[in-house]
Each structure stands twice: as structure tokens, then as C-alpha cells.
Amino acid sequence: MQQQDRPFLEVSDVRVWFPIRKGVLNRVVAHVRAVDGVSFTLRQGETLGLVGESGCGKTTLGRAILGLEPVRSGHVLFDGEDFTALPERRRRHLRRRCQMVFQDPQASLNPRLTVLELLTEGLRYHRLLHGETPEQAAGRLLADVGMDTDALYRYPHEFSGGQRQRLSIARALSLKPQLLVCDEPVSALDVSVQAQVINLLLDLRDKYHLSYIFISHDLSVVRIISQQVAVMYLGHMVEMGPVEAVMESPRHPYTQALLSAVPVPGRPAGQRIILKGEMPSPAAPPPGCPFHPRCPHATEACAHGDVPPLRSLPDQPGHLVACRLLN
Length: 327
Ligand SMILES: Nc1ncnc2c1ncn2[C@@H]1O[C@H](COP(=O)(O)OP(=O)(O)O)[C@@H](O)[C@H]1O
Ligand SMILES: [Mg+2]
Prior knowledge:
The protein is an alpha/beta fold. It is 30% helix and 24% strand. It folds into 2 domains: 2-97 and 178-321, Rossmann fold; 111-175, no CATH class. β4 (73-78) and β5 form a beta hairpin. The longest helix is centred in the middle third of the chain and has 18 residues, at 191-208. Ligand 1 is lined by residues 18, 32, 34, 52, 54-60, 282. Ligand 1 binds at residues 18, 32, 34, 52, 54-60, 282.
């Protein structure tokens, strides 16, 4: 039981900065602060929906958790183990437990490999066939994503967008991961196909007790699949909590604006809040609260001091908001 209660994934104060280089000496003159101090935890079998405007750092955060981007500071712990601090062999083993599903399956599946090769490449590399033939293993994975074995000797381009996304999910599952980072996995698909892929992800989560980090700009999809939701703005988390609490009674002015643009079941339709200006560049973030230049409620004090930390609302434990104006 104790194992179950401890978060399976712990992300603490993670920063990912990309250097900007200039001049003949190629010197670092500034940094793009794509992810700038993000913390959260995730339990086995649970889904965290990650939302926020394009460029706020969602993909970079997902990649950093999987060890695909160098973390400038902070820690990512799986089952209490910090994998940035592990020797390479052990790190490879841990990394296997976390896989990514991308928005564009066309780009993430090697076009020169057959489905059989695509689905068993990782199994061969990690020596995980355990007595199964490659055909048996690939057939089992295809069945998991609702496809027939007649797909085995075909190439990715011969399939529709929805089927290709099923193949990339099968490929991600091949190494028996515990965590899938799904980065806009249905955004490129037709609406009718989106629901099928979402249902597949829900079924697989139950069957294999998977955890998901589900990145999407479609809040209605996030609502269906997530238990927890986190709202990102300019490399920071501004609001986080149970999906009903955040979506039905958003407290951060940014979340309120984001949600005012879409109808959410359970929340009365209100006035659409139009934010002034655009998200500033993460290479030159504003001082104080990162949202203050666009915030309809900002006061003089919001433009100074440290970035406001995420704090639990007194009336709603577990619902966290990073705003000085809320108590
Ligand atoms: N490899 C990179 N080098 C430099 N800047 C990057 C790189 N990847 C992402 N960025 C920048 O980091 C910020 C966050 O990007 P990203 O994580 O892709 O946001 P999102 O997925 O929320 O749209 C953006 O300003 C983007 O331009
Ligand atoms: Mg992205």
C-alpha cells in the first residue's frame, strides 16, 4: 500500500534554459527560459493534463522529464530515484519506463521500417522478447491498439492518420512503460478519429495502470482524460489541482481567460475574457509575476519581487494558485 501512496513521479523545481549564442565567438548572450522552476507529483495510474498557450514550455517540460532535454537545475524522480544522478546503465533502464507519443505520428515513425520492425526494434535492443517471436510480440501490441496482424509487413505511410497514431502508441507500449508523455496526440487527427484514440488511451491506462502526462490545447479533451490539470504560462505553473476544481472554478486570472474561450461542462457560460497583448518572450521574461503585463487585476506590487509561488487555497486544499492577489 505504501508503494501506492508515494508519488510515482516527482518533479521538483525543474529549469530548462536554452542558450542564445551570438557573434563570431559564439558566446552565450542570453537564455530562453522555456521551463523555469516547475514542480508537481504524479501517482501511478493517474493523468496530469498540461495546458497553456503555444510556446509556454509544455513540450520542453515533457521532454525534460524523459531525459531528452538537459535539466539546468531541479530534479526528476521516478519511484524516489533521481535518474539524472544514476549511472548510464541504470538510467537506460529507467528511461525505458517512460515513453513519449507525439502529435505527428508521420514524423515519429521511421518510414523505411515495416510495422513489425517498428514495434520490435526496442524489444530487441533491450532484449525483452523473453521467448516470444518478434511476430508474436508485434501481434500482441497490435491487438492492444485495436489493429490486425495483417499490418505487420506494411509501412507507416500505408495507414491513415488515426491508425498511424495507434501504431506509435503500440510502439511506445512495447517497452512496458509506466509513464506516457502524450504531446498533443490527437491534435492532428479528424474530430471523429480523436474520440477513438482518446478512448484507446483510456482503455490502455486502465489495463496497464499507466500514468499519463497529457499535453493538449483542447480543454474538453483534457477534461475527459485527466484527474489533475496544470496550467502553464511562460515556463511557470500558474494553477494546478483536481480537474473539476480548476475547470469549474478557475482562480488564476490566466486560467480564467483561457477557459472563458471554451464552454466547459459544469461551469456556467460567462463573458469571454480577452487578454491584452501577447505572451512575452521567454528570453526576456517580465519581472515579478510573469503574467502581470497582461493581467486585468494586476497591481503595482505584481510587477516587483519574486515570481509568486504556487500556494494551496485555504478553502480548497490541493487546488494551487500562483497569484499574490488571492488569499
Ligand atoms: N531546442 C530549442 N532551442 C531554443 N529554444 C527552444 C528550443 N525548444 C523550444 N524552445 C523555445 O522554448 C519555448 C517553449 O517551447 P515549447 O516547449 O515547444 O512550448 P509549447 O510546447 O508549450 O508550445 C519557446 O519559446 C520555444 O521557442
Ligand atoms: Mg509543444
